[in-house]
Specification:
mainly beta, Protocatechuate 3,4-Dioxygenase, subunit A, five-stranded mixed sheet, 4 helices, globular, disordered N terminus, oxidoreductase, 3_4-PCD, protocatechuate 3,4-dioxygenase activity, EC 1.13.11.3, ferric iron binding
């Protein structure tokens, strides 16, 4: 069954044990920044003290990082990165040839550390498609205590070209594809056309799991 407001699915083991399905791993590229920006906060719309916002539809991305047992993962580091509204990434292999198109006001990368409830939040832009990747997406990486735990992507539920996207298909069957999608919904009463999306992330293993087996 679906978690209320989220995308995590339950799977049953035995008669009584019930756990969440782990979010599928998906490719990191392209393009994890080869040079991280000086401003690495969770607001990708405005860089530093600038008053000029990024081009694009503002999106509030929120969610929780959970174990398969449904427990929140605190002190986890979550990174996101994505291309700007003109489909240019914060990476020299992409941006060097597209300086005229690149949005200088889009941070392109952000980082957040979860609190006791495992929650995270970012303000970014609604993702856009580009040649070779027909499914709009936001890249995500989760780490804890120096251990990289998961790299995945968040895509838009119901987007008509998702099925043409090789990375989306690589998530697996329909049940697993559901785990890499979020509902992008208009923010009620927003005067500037903002969006919200909730994307819960379920980790298959955490550093605590490894310590318990040692």
């Amino acid at each position: 069954m679906l978690l209320a407001g989220g995308t995590a699915l339950f799977t049953t083991r035995g008669l009584f044990a019930e756990e969440l399905m782990a979010t599928p791993r998906l490719t990191e590229g392209p393009f994890y920044p080869d040079h991280l920006p000086l401003d690495r906060d969770n607001d990708l719309i405005v860089i530093g003290d600038s008053t000029t916002p990024a081009v694009g539809e503002i999106t509030h991305l929120t969610g929780r990082i959970l174990t398969k047992a449904g427990s929140p993962v605190r002190n986890a580091s979550i990174e996101i990165w994505q291309c700007d509204a003109n489909a240019v990434y914060l990476h020299s292999r992409d941006s060097n040839g597209k300086k005229q198109q690149q949005d200088p006001n889009f941070q392109g990368y952000g980082k957040f550390e979860t609190a006791a409830d495992g929650g995270y939040r970012f303000r970014t832009i609604k993702p856009v498609p580009y040649p070779g990747r027909p499914a709009p997406h936001i890249h995500i990486k989760v780490s804890q205590n120096g251990h990289e735990l998961l790299t995945t992507q968040c895509m838009m539920r119901g987007y008509e070209k998702n099925s043409r996207d090789g990375v989306f298909r690589a998530a697996g069957d329909k049940a697993r594809q559901e785990l890499v999608m979020a509902d992008f919904k208009p923010v009620p009463d927003s005067k500037i056309g903002e969006w919200s999306a909730n994307f819960d992330i379920v980790l298959g293993r955490t550093p605590d799991d490894r310590q318990m087996k040692q």
